[in-house]
Amino acid sequence: MSVLVLLIILVTGPLGYKYELVPLQPSLVSLLIALVGGALTVLIAVVYLVIAIKRDLSKNRNLILVSIVLGLVPVVVMVPQMLKAGDVPPIHDISTDTANPPIFVAIRPLRVNAPNGVDYGASENWTAEKLASTTIEAYPDLAAISSTLSMGDAVARAEAVLIDMGLEIVSVDEGAGRIEATATTTWFGFKDDMALRIVAENEGSRIDLRSMSRVGQSDVGVNAARILEFVAAF
């Protein structure tokens, strides 16, 4: 029964934040509770499993195995994310052009109450220069797209790719070569915003991308991965 309670906590904590029933901090604490509880359940269950095997208590052994499997769920869900968070810098604003990042226009009003501002490098303890150097060092593969498509065709292609990726298109300004879109996570309902700048270059076009989280100091590498996914699809 206690394992089922932990699984309920694991699921309802994030969903509570997503549907604005609880603040972010308690929902994050719920994940920690589920993780610690799941790990303790597994450790205790392993001890009982050894006892059940020695005493040939097959019925008890099967129940204990079920408890171990269920107890591992929070561990399997949370530990990879925690390890990944330790492998990337604590940043949440990623751009292919760190000297002149694409700007948010239509999305700016939607982020008025968001903890993370829209200005590049405006987060606490960060400057634009520090954010730029950290981004380049952490994600050296990030680069603008040089396309043979005309500016107009590139705008249309970029919009289609964003839709295929599951993002909500907020604004398309073909004349300015700017597209803004929002990605929403399934579990917590976190929102990350993307701004694309498309300009004519030689006989084709150049596409720069910026992906930025509204909440959280670290994005656990999600924004960079989103940009790379777009580049691969485009």
What spatial form do the alpha-carbon principal axes imply? elongated
Percent of residues in helices: 40-55%
Q: Strand tally, please?
A: 6
Succession of helices and strands: HHHEHEHEEEEH
Oligomer, anyone? single chain
Distance between the termini: 49 Å
Average pLDDT across residues?
Answer: 90
Task: Give the low-confidence spans.
Answer: none
Number of helices: 6
**Structural class assignment:** alpha+beta
Described by strand count, sense and barrel closure, the largest sheet is: 6 strands, antiparallel
Strand content: 15-25%
Q: Taking Cα atoms only, what radius of gyration do you get, to the nearest Å?
A: 22 Å
Could you name the key traits of this structure?
single chain, 234 residues, six-stranded antiparallel beta sheet, 6 helices
Note down, in words, how this protein is organized:
With 234 residues, this protein is α+β, with helices and mostly antiparallel strands. Helices cover 49% and strands 17% of the residues. Strands 1, 2, 3, 4, 5 and 6 form a six-stranded antiparallel beta sheet that branches. The chain is elongated. The relative contact order is 0.14.
